[in-house]
Every structure is written in structure tokens, then in C-alpha cells.
Amino acid sequence: MRYLFAFLFFAGLFGLVALPYQTFGTPIWPVVIMTLGASTWFGHIVRLRPRQIGLSVGYFGLFGALWLKSFPPMAVTALRGWTSLLGMFAFSCIALLALLIVFFKADRADRSVLVGALACIFCSAMIALLSGSSGGAAAFYEFLVSRGFADNLAETTNFVFRKSVHFGFYGFFAVMAFRTARLGGAPKPVIAALAFVMMHSVFDEVRQWSVPNRTGSAWDVLLDLLGVLAFLYWANRPFRVIRV
């Protein structure tokens, strides 16, 4: 385990030093802003301050890795593809190192909270990936057409499927955030989960305005909010006192 930690540390350090050469103009500031928001949430709202730095670094690494992955490959030079892979590898090493240290240094009683925090980080990273060009509607639509769906039916099926995924994914994300906040001792776990998840929903839609073949939508934010509220209502019910 010691050698694994050493390898991840030096690989991540090398990746950060070479970061300007990896991105070639890819904006990294959204990753920094989202990391600052997540760090505030982990440390001051969920009150995981002893683990705040490790979780924040893990968030930064995994979010950054899939952020780079979400950009379409540029065919100008083959070097761009290799350096993007190096950047993703470096970010992944940083994330894995930080999260392994956090998890193995934690007491057994704290690990149940960390499982929820890790699930939140994973959901955040998936949003970083799918908010880019790889999360567009064209791929699934073409898949349906190739399976014999008529154009109108493929379009309708694609629309229903994507909106259902929006509703369910953000609902699941909210349940994980609620569980983390409640076990972490947040005074108002429902509000904490709502704020954290909707921060990512707004980021997702705002980013899509700058991605080719994607269009951000306020209606999707509203749909995400409905999914969050529905799942939070379901998740919070067992903890209510029922009076007869």
C-alpha cells in the first residue's frame, strides 16, 4: 500500500506540474469553482472538517479527470490527445490517492459517512463528463434508429428516456447528499442536500450553452428540482415521528 501511495503521489504531482501543457486552452476554472463549492459543503455544512481537505482534493481530481474527458478530441495534432490522457491520468491519481487516504485513516464509525460522500463525488464527476459533448442526445437517437425505430418514435423515446434519467439521477444524487449530511451532523440535512445537488444542476445546464450540439435549459433545472424534492421526500419519511 505504501508503494501505491508513493506512485499515485508522484504521478499526480508530475501531472500538475505539466498541467498547462496538457490542457491546451481547456478551461480549468470551472473545476476550481466547483471544488471550492464542494469543499465548503463538506467542511462547513456537512461538518466533515477533519476529512475536508482529502475529500476536496478527491473531488477536484475526479471532477477534473472527467472534465477533460468530456471535451471532444481535437484533430489538429496527435499530441493533444496524448496530453489530455496524461491530464486525466494525473487527475485520477490525485483523486485516488486523496480518497484512499481519507478512507483508510477514518474510523470504522466514520466510514458510513464517507461512503455517502464518495457517492456524491462520483455523481458530481459524472455530471462533469455528461455535460459535455459526450452526453448529447444524438448517440442514443442514432442507436434507436439503427434498431428499426421510426424517426418520430425514436425521437419521442429518446426524449422520454433522457428526461427520466434527469429526474432519477438527480434524485439519487440528492438521497446520497442527504444521507451524508444527516450522518455528518448537518443541522438541516434536507436543505444541505438540496443546495449541493442544485448547484450541480445549474452548472450542468449553464455549461451546455458553451458546448457544440448541446443546449442548456431552465426546464431541465426545474425537472432536476422535482426529482430532488420527490426523492428527498421519500428519503426523509422514515425519520419522521408519526403521531396517532
Largest sheet: none
Radius of gyration of CA atoms, rounded to a whole number: 19 Å
Helicity range of the residues? Answer: over 70%
By DSSP, the count of extended strands is 0
N→C terminal distance? 55 Å
**Count of discrete alpha- or pi-helical segments spanning 4 or more residues:** 10
SSE sequence, one letter per element: HHHHHHHHHH
Provide mean pLDDT, rounded.
Answer: 76
Strand content: under 5%
Structural class: mainly alpha
Q: Using the alpha-carbon principal axes, give the shape.
A: globular
Given as residue ranges, the uncertain stretches (5+ residues, pLDDT < 50) are: 5-10, 20-24, 74-80, 239-244
Summarize the structure.
This protein has 244 residues and is mostly helical. The chain has ten helices and no strands.
List the helices and strands and how they pair.
Elements: H1 2-17, H2 19-23, H3 29-45, H4 52-69, H5 78-105, H6 108-130, H7 138-146, H8 151-184, H9 189-208, H10 218-236
Helix pairs in contact: 1-5, 3-4, 3-9, 4-5, 4-6, 6-8, 7-8, 8-9, 8-10, 9-10
What does this structure look like?
- With 244 residues, the protein is an all-alpha fold.
- Helix content is 77%, strand content 0%.
- The chain contains ten helices and no strands.
- Helix 6 runs antiparallel to helix 8.
- It is globular and about 55 Å long.
- The chain starts with a helix and ends in an 8-residue tail after the last helix.
Task: Provide key terms for this protein.
244 residues; disordered C terminus; mainly alpha
